[in-house]
Amino acid sequence: MTDNLLCWADYRVIRNAGEPVLFAVEDASLFALSEEAHETLCRWRRCEFIDLDEIPLPDQELLAGLRDARVLLPVSGEQQLLPRLEPGTVPLSTLVLEVAQDCNLRCTYCYAEAGTYGAAPCLLAPDTAREAVRYLLDQSGDREQVTLVFFGGEPLLNMQAVRAATREAISYGGELGKRVQFSLTTNGTLLNAGIVNFLHEHRVSVAVSLDGPRHVHDRNRPDALGNGSYDAVVSRLGMLLEDSPAPVAARVTLAPDQWHRVVEVFDHLVGLGFHEVGIAPVSPVTTALLPTPAEETALLSSFRVLARRFVDEAKKGRILPFANILDVLGRLHLGQTKSVSCGAGFGYLALDAKGSLFPCHRLAGEADFCVGNLTGGIDTDRINSCLGSLNRGRDQSCSGCWARTLCAGGCHYENNLRENQLGLPRGTSCGFIRGWLDLGIKTYAELRTDGAIEAMSRRLAQRAQC
Amino acid sequence: MKKNRPIQALNEKARAIQSLAEGEQATVEALQEGPPAMPVGCTTIFDTGWETNPRPTYPVGNCQSSAKDFHGCAGDCWWPAQVPDGLTNHEDFDKQCPNVARDWRVLKYD
Amino acid sequence: MSSKTTRLLAVAVLLMGMNAGNAFAKDMFYYIGYGMVQVIDGDKDAIVADIPVDGWLRESDFSADRQFLYVTAKRHLIHKIDLGEQRVVSTIDVSSDGWDRFIYGFDLAPDGKSAFVNLVSRSTQKGQAVAAAPVLAQIDLEDGRILRSIEVPWGSVALVSVNNASSIYVIGKDIVRVDVSAEEMKLVDTFPMFDKQWNILPLWDNTRDNGGVFMANYYTPEFMGLLSIDTGSGEISDIRLDGAPVFAYSVIRSPDKKKVYAVMDELIVIDLESRSYEAVLPIPGGTHYAINVSSDGGKVYVSGGGSTTIVYDAKSLKPIKVLQMEVDGMDFRRLPF
């Protein structure tokens, strides 16, 4: 047996504007194929094994090219598997502080039960916040930079803890020679000049939850009395955006019956001056929020419109601040593959207001997912068992999917919600995820063949490493 | 981008895989061959605003992009680790933001 | 009428005025920017035209008849700009035949058809990188063809032609003199700098603006000095300054030859008679790369680095005007009419 005996790797050919683009699944590499190369590929695909020495020219040359691209692999070669990650072996990089498990709004889709995560309203004590910062820095191994996220509920309800944590991050981070980046997600209704000064002074990256124009936003995000919060947010935006040293993002959540409004929502928010807009379909916290196939199609087509505009802008040398597409393009640009779907429990943890640790902010407050506390640290067996039980058998159900190295099973919280709480079968969101990644690949291929990606490649790469 | 190649790498991973197969890893180092000398690499006194900035003007932090010295460093690879190099890989990098002080947000450089 | 049209007309009028033979020199300044050259009327200190140019610009030189400005871009393109028409009329690329070539030093030859360039080159052969020795080359400005060349030391960044272009000084770690008067170019002389611990960054060559004298500052561990090369006589001279060095990117001499202005984070005034620093003024907004002075000596301009050009009154050293340029810049050249 020679090294020239080859077999096919897993790949998928996606047609972008008629041009064949090959996505090699294990490497997450992307190649543009000439029609001739594609025709040769289709013709030889039927042979399970290819002996290059036996193939006549010019096919031999093209197949050798596919071997160089690792689309054909030596039969004698060892299969390369992504290294398996163990919790506790990855230094901590991000800690989310649920500084206030309380909120002044009553958003209709809130997964945290009015910010409380299903318990009595509670604020994180400043001392605990300081202790948490020291834990993040102590557990960060050789990382020179870590991220501290202020979350809630509404974090501005507990500025005392935010300020205490920030001060501690600067002083203790300074002692250790580490830099702490701050980010904060807020509903924006409690911003004032003092808070904005503080956020600017510490270069806090702020995400404001704003769901679009008044009629969309106010339906989703009323206060406790049932009044809309749009005016309260927008009247405070100016001071936050003005001279902000860090980008300010709009964080949008839309219910399925609002998904056809995505473009309108995006334009409205860019018009308000946000530096970036990210749009999330709501998590189905109740079955009423589960989308119909038609609504999913509407969401994908709206995203397709924005992706189209992103390409048009990129050709003019401008970047449309559409966070969703920037994120997926960043990962496709580097060809990042994943063996776990996200960092939850691996370098990413959340601390609830009572000082318990969870794999991520969305799982905070779910007793089944409590994985430790500040004094005892994390229990890696707990992380393995709670994420393990959630994902048992998923490797296998994902093994036939072309998107597996990009998606790696999807969001733990979303899977838990759909499968364990709503009792849905596995894979109810897979169609949407694949549709979105397919759109990402087409968009990337188009930008790349036009050369428009060059100018933003560094930014994309940087984004993918966050 | 090489045209007319039947199998053309699109993303960085694909590019790395192809160049691995072709053994072409040394191109970038070419300019650094020969005895170490100017202009590829500059002395510390000439590039203000990058490593340290003792002067009472922005940027305040160290190792940040400096609005005043950004493209001068990028084009000629004075600081190839911190900005894209204009000689080999990104010769049109400046086009996305030719006025850094005004349009730095486009760079998202933090 | 659009503002752009107004600008173009304004310049056309200026250029016509020039032909009428004005008794007083009128300055036009050329801002060598990123993807653009901007034209500044030195009387009004106002931007009067934008000339789009592809790439990040570095060296520049005016043709002897003052009709054309040549700029190098991305270290491998040479654009010819017609100053009357205010547009790029031709572009050549020195990279060819599988070689990437990079220009560090550019000087127009007196024939107006060729230029001297210092080139660093690389290629890939059988998957391996190959770097060729740097050369001083004379190239045809029509097509970029190398007419003749000679190997020069590594690390050269500027060229100065002297004695009616019979010799070229190649400035790098040392200065080597290349005799180009005969068909075959010859290295004839070396003026040492490296062994004297001089540290020099002569990226801003404004010999023409400086009365035909190339001037750059250098540093030793102890002091700052001024290197100057008289392009008429070929004489190299060196002025050592008293006092702690002040950091500067580039320098220019006042028309009355009594002072030298230098710039980096400060505007620095050097008195040539006493060889000392007369003033060191921090510049609002920070670093600038380039410095120039009006023909009558009344105004000093700092520019480049970022996107501002600041006009100073030379006597009071007070800023008179700040011009917000469209793009960041590298250099600021003067052409008197």
Describe the protein's architecture and organization.
The complex is a heterotrimer of chains A (about 475), B (about 110) and C (about 325). Chain A has about 475 residues and is an alpha/beta fold. Chain A is about 40% helix and about 20% strand. Chain A has 16 helices and 17 strands. In chain A, the strands form three sheets. In chain A, strands 7, 8, 9, 10, 11, 12, 13, 14, 15, 16 and 17 form an eleven-stranded mixed beta sheet that branches. In chain A, strands 5-1-6 form a three-stranded antiparallel beta sheet, covered by helices on one side. In chain A, helix 9 packs parallel to helix 15 and helix 10 crosses helix 15 (about 430-450). Chain A is globular and about 75 Å long. Chain B has about 110 residues and is mainly alpha-helical. In chain B, about 25% of the residues lie in helices and about 5% in strands. Chain B has helices at about 10-20, 70-75, 100-105, and one strand at about 5-10. The longest helix of chain B has 11 residues, at about 10-20. Mean pLDDT of chain B is about 60; it is low at about 25-65. Chain C is about 5% helix and about 55% strand. Chain C has one helix at about 5-20; strands at about 25-40, 45-60, 70-75, 75-80, 85-95, 100-110, 115-125, 130-140, 145-150, 160, 165-170, 175-180, 185-190, 200, 215-220, 225-230, 235-240, 250-255, 260-265, 265-270, 275-280, 290-295, 300-305, 310-315, 320-325, 330-335. Chain C has a six-stranded antiparallel beta sheet, with helices on one face. Chain C has a four-stranded antiparallel beta sheet with strand order 6-7-8-9, with no helix packed on it. In chain C, strands 10-11-12-13 form a four-stranded antiparallel beta sheet, with no helix packed on it. Chain C is globular, with a radius of gyration of 20 Å. Mean pLDDT of chain C is about 90; it is low at about 1-25.
